[in-house]
Design goal:
Blueprint lengths: L1 H14 L4 E4 L16 H6 L7 E5 L3 E5 L4 H7 L6 E4 L8 H8 L5 E3 L7 H10 L4 E3 L4 H5 L12 E2 L2 H4 L3 H15 L3 E4 L2 H8 L1 E2 L11 E6 L3 E5 L6 H9 L2 E5 L3 H6 L6 E4 L6 H6 L5 E4 L3 H7 L3 H28 L7 H13 L4 E4 L4 E4 L23 E6 L1 E3 L2 E2 L2 E6 L5 H18 L3 E2 L7 H10 L10 E3 L8 E6 L13 E4 L2 E4 L3 E4 L2 E11 L2 E8 L17 H18 L5 H10 L4
Helix pairs in contact: 14-15, 14-19, 16-17
């Protein structure tokens, strides 16, 4: 099937003498997760990971993806004729290096500009020299039979009761930022930023309660471009009352072309597609940077934080019920990774104001847990046995906010290596929770502090330590990021971020421990304003695999204090066997 699709694509390329065609994992808004209509890279390759780019020439095809997906991609690309290029690995060519090598100096490179980020397009222009780059070619759309429709679900209003601010207040803050930057207009293509600003949510993308739309803000007018049929009267009236005009989704191109010459427009080139950029009046001047709304939504206000705390209590109760059920049923030998993931969904659904999962559950037993983004397949998933580790990484969207949590459970007997690795991951996790740092510390600087317990044992993990978490929005949110990649964004009070170190031993086991935490102020003194972290997640951390002798007294105190708070927060909502399970799981070590 995949080979046939690539053959048809090459036939299209031959008609216009295209030497290379690029298919990214993207939609017109550069979303991380995509509506089915926009899964063009998955369609042409069969690879289902959330990150990757395919390049097809007349005689070669390659997929570039990162370390989270190396093993998965290798499996899914078998017999497709598509080679795997492991990003970040020494001597593996980048996409641009591959195109330079595989196409003639004056050749043609093509892509669909409606879903290609302008930032990446600039890199192509800079590096590909005399090669012609065509941006108006949607070959996948031409060969994709029975392509899913663009979603058309209704928008819903996210009330001030939950957001703490109405849209007019947010627009006032945004315009103040625009004035400081010298911008007359701000184009926003990021769906999470638009939904944050407009206080709306929807169901256009699985696991992401966002709405396919654009926004164009000036000092006088705020325009929302959307499928008008999706907007109920209540939402329409709210937006009008808050100074927002509703226009048809495709009208954005006309309005961008009509911006007066010599005006200044602010755009985020990473979240703006090529076609949008080309539609802007050529006499308009640009300021480029992160969407101004990105930092606004990253720093949660007191109303949002109080609701988030409620969401994590609901999530903690659901997880304790699930763990009790899992450990009771696992010895029967009838529970599979896929089935237990389904049951976890059922436990979450019992919680008040639950909407949907915040991402596809990673439910992995034994060696499957060595794949950081493993996803069980119905009928082909492993049976959970009474030995080794089971890892579950999952989350939910509630009206109160978005959750994300990972726990690794001992299902029975463990090897000494499994216990050792588990204890080191726990030490790394606690290391970050105990870290206080001065204001002005870049979020990426916290990564090495977390990894230190692993590095000193010559161990590491191939993913970030922490990502921002949205508020009933994307579970992965910027601008802060705790990772090896340098980041110029300060960690600031109110930022909600994950803490998720791990160890993955291919063919044996995988371990990850994740909490969500909020950055808080700790102390101001003559040396500066010191910040730290407070957990939002309150769910037992399995202590059965812990080698206590490897923990410092401070780490033991943190773990015992954390479990004391877990019991205090969750016990009022549990009874019977589930209460007993919580009590046993939170005993001091």
């Amino acid at each position: 099937m995949i080979k046939n699709r690539i053959r048809r694509l090459r036939e299209k390329m031959a008609e216009r003498k295209i030497d290379a065609y690029i298919i990214p994992s993207s939609d017109p808004h550069q979303s991380e997760y995509l509506a089915d209509h926009y899964k063009t890279r998955e369609y042409i390759s069969g690879f289902t990971g959330s990150a990757g780019t395919v390049v097809v020439t007349m005689d070669k095809a390659g997929l570039w993806t990162d370390g989270r997906y190396f093993i998965q991609a290798e499996e899914q690309l078998k017999d497709t004729g598509i080679d795997l290029y492991r990003m970040g690995v020494e001597n593996v060519p980048t996409i641009i290096e591959f195109i330079q090598r595989e196409t003639p100096e004056h050749g043609k490179v093509a892509l669909d500009g409606s879903s290609y980020p302008y930032d990446n397009y600039l890199q192509l222009l800079k590096k590909l020299g005399s090669r012609m780059i065509l941006t108006d070619i949607d070959y996948i759309g031409e060969i994709w039979e029975n392509r899913p429709e663009i979603p058309g679900d209704k928008v819903f209003l996210y009330e001030k009761e939950y957001t703490g601010q109405n849209t007019s207040e947010k627009l006032q803050i945004l315009r103040s930022k625009m004035r400081e930057a010298g911008a007359d207009y701000h184009f926003i293509g990021s769906l999470e930023d638009i939904c944050y600003l407009m206080n709306i949510r929807g169901h256009d993308i699985s696991f992401n309660p966002v709405v396919i739309s654009y926004a164009l803000i000036s000092m006088e007018v705020a325009n929302l471009y959307i499928d008008m049929a999706k907007v109920p009267e209540e939402v329409l009236n709210y937006l009008r009352d808050n100074g927002v005009r509703i226009k048809d989704y495709d009208r954005i191109f006309e309005d961008l072309a009509e911006i007066p010459g010599k005006s200044v427009i602010y755009i985020d080139p990473k979240r703006t597609n090529v076609n949008i950029y080309h539609a802007i009046n050529s006499n308009v001047r640009f300021i480029k940077g992160r969407n101004m709304t990105e930092m606004m939504k990253a720093i949660k206000n007191e109303v949002e934080l109080e609701h988030l705390k409620n969401a994590f209590i609901k999530d903690g109760v659901a997880l304790v019920k699930f763990f009790n059920w899992l450990e009771t049923g696992a010895p029967t030998g009838t529970l599979t990774e896929y089935y237990v993931a389904d049951r976890l969904h059922d436990f979450r659904r019992e919680g008040e104001d639950f909407i949907e999962e915040s991402f596809g559950t990673i439910s992995a037993y034994g060696e499957n847990a060595a794949l950081p983004h493993y996803s069980p397949i119905k009928g082909r998933s492993a049976t959970i046995k009474n030995r080794g580790f089971y890892l579950v990484d999952s989350g939910g969207h509630y009206l109160d906010g978005t959750t994300d949590i990972t726990r690794t459970l001992a299902m029975g007997d463990l090897s000494e290596d499994e216990k050792y690795h588990y204890t080191l991951v726990l030490k790394a996790h606690i290391q970050l929770m105990l870290c206080d740092f001065p204001r002005g510390t870049k979020s990426s600087m916290l990564d090495s502090i977390t990894r230190y317990p692993l590095w000193r044992e010559h161990l590491d993990f191939n993913h970030g330590t922490g990502h921002g978490v949205g508020y009933l929005l994307s579970v992965h949110e910027g601008p802060q990021s705790i990772s090896k990649v340098n980041n110029e964004v300060d960690m600031l009070p109110g930022m909600v971020t994950s803490n998720e170190p791990g160890i993955y031993i291919e063919g044996s086991h995988g371990i990850r421990i994740e909490n969500i935490m909020v950055c808080i102020r700790k102390e101001e003194n003559e040396f500066g304003d010191f910040l730290g972290f407070e957990p939002l997640s309150y769910i037992p951390i399995d202590t059965r695999p812990v080698m206590k002798e490897l923990l410092s007294p401070e780490e033991i105190d943190w773990l015992n204090d954390y479990h004391k708070k877990v019991f205090e927060k969750l016990s009022p909502y549990l009874e019977g066997d589930e209460f007993d399970y919580l009590e046993k799981s939170t005993l001091e070590i």
